[in-house]
Amino acid sequence: MSQVPITVKGAKALQDELFQLKSIDRPKVIDDIATAREHGDLKENAEYHAAREQQGFIEGRIKDIEGKLGNATIIDVTTVNANGKVVFGATVDVADEETGDEMTYQIVGEDEADIKKNMISVGSPIARALIGKEEGDVAEVKTPGGLRSLEIVEIRYI
Questions:
Q1: For the stretch 112-150, what's the b/e string if a residue is b when 16 or more beta carbons lie within 10 angstroms of its beta carbon?
Q2: Which residue segments constitute the domains of the chain, with CATH numbers given?
Q3: Alpha-helical segments (H) within 7-97
Q4: What is the pLDDT at residue 44?
Q5: What's the pLDDT at 46?
Q6: How far apart are CA 29 and CA 132, in angstroms?
């Protein structure tokens, strides 16, 4: 599998979740299974089946996170010499030339993307249009609603 970029903050969030799952959630569900077994017949034991289902979810998520971290290339945007260009991890203020609306986006890895937090995937059309541009440049973005022109107002590496 190829390497996938992730920000320092995104990697930390995955590592924290992995720690939570391995050190707190996994032992708790093992205890829940043991307690449920003590209640007798496993065929009709809803607590047992719920705990086993939860265990499957936890183990699957642990495997998923370990895979993501194993294939991740952690990029610290504060140490990248971007020469004033939009790069992975940068926070970009843009203005829609048609409407004048201003937006702020941070370009992140696919697993970190959250449009509600203005974090867009490096593979998204907006991010692809912004990468490599400088302040004052205009990025043309093809959207389902038509072509949008976004002027880059400011680039921050935080």
A1: bbeeeeebbbbebebbbbbbebeeeeebebeeeeeebeb
A2: 4-75 (1.10.287.180), 77-156 (3.10.50.30)
A3: 8-20, 26-37, 46-70
A4: 77
A5: 86
A6: 47
In the predicted model, what is the mean pLDDT of residues 78-105?
Answer: 93
Residue 70, Cα to own-chain centre: how many angstroms? 15
* Helices and strands (H and E) in the chain: how many: 4, 7
**Cβ 147 vs Cβ 76: under 8 Å:** no
Answer yes or no: is pLDDT of 1 > 60: no
Per-residue pLDDT at 132 exceeds 90: yes
The answer to whether 87 and 131 have CB atoms below 8 angstroms apart is yes
Residue type, 38: E
Mean pLDDT of 115-123: 94
Q: What number of CA atoms fall less than 13 Å from residue 154's CA on the CB side?
A: 7
Q: How far is CA 47 from CA 27, 28, 40, 56, in A?
A: 16, 13, 11, 14
Amino acid at the residue 35: T
46 versus 64: the higher-pLDDT residue is 64
Collapsing DSSP to helix, strand or coil, 80 comes out as coil
Give me the residues paired with residue 85 across strands: 134
